[in-house]
Fold this protein.
Amino acid sequence: MTGPNAMRQDDAPERRSAAESMPDPWGVRRAENLITSLEGVLSARVVTTPLGEVSEVHVLAQAGLQPKQIVRNIESALLAHLGLKVDHRKISIAQTAEVRPIEALERGVVREQVLRRSVLFEDVAILPSERSHRVTVSVTMASGGRTVTGQEEVADTVKGRVEGAARAAVAVLDQLLEKHALVLEGAKVVTELDRSTAFAVVRGMGGRESVMLTGTAEVRDSPEQAGVLAVLDATNRWAEARRVG
């Protein structure tokens, strides 16, 4: 066939190929592939502003999973793997049991890397203690196909629970390092302008190296959870580069 219509049809594959090979300056495809590799996630779309800030994250997930846990996994994966902090309010979850993934590009490779390298926050729990006015803070994280839990007994105060959660999180991360170590220097919650934020300071050590790492996290579900996320914010890049996967 000849003529203008035939020319447009012949050019269509070339245009699609050019679009697929366009640069990805904000790492949108990497973020989408990472999210799609998480358990239960079928597809993902990341929307950014002209400046590259994430404005929306739309996720299609299998039915039967808790949307809140999916959001936590997405936040943890983006932070641990890409160093990207995304407000949970920007993440929307739709669930279905029938629709298959829209895109599976590099899914196997990305999923393998995520399971091998990323540390995902699972849960923080406050457990009763045998001692009066004390509780046990339990923090659970998943990495490399295994689940690790750290516990700390602390005074039953907000300050004590936040420090205990941060210390337990550091203990979990410390188990994942072989020739390096992490020690919590301090953690607390500060309230300014009607917003509460957890701060954590962690010392990373290995050989002759000793560095101070700092991180923050907005208090959302609980001060204890914010304490854990502040530790992850402080340590994710340093620990990721040194952990044997």
Q: What stands out?
A: Residues 189 and 198 are 4 Å apart (CA to CA). The helical segments are 4-20, 28-36, 67-82, 107-117, 158-175, 223-242.
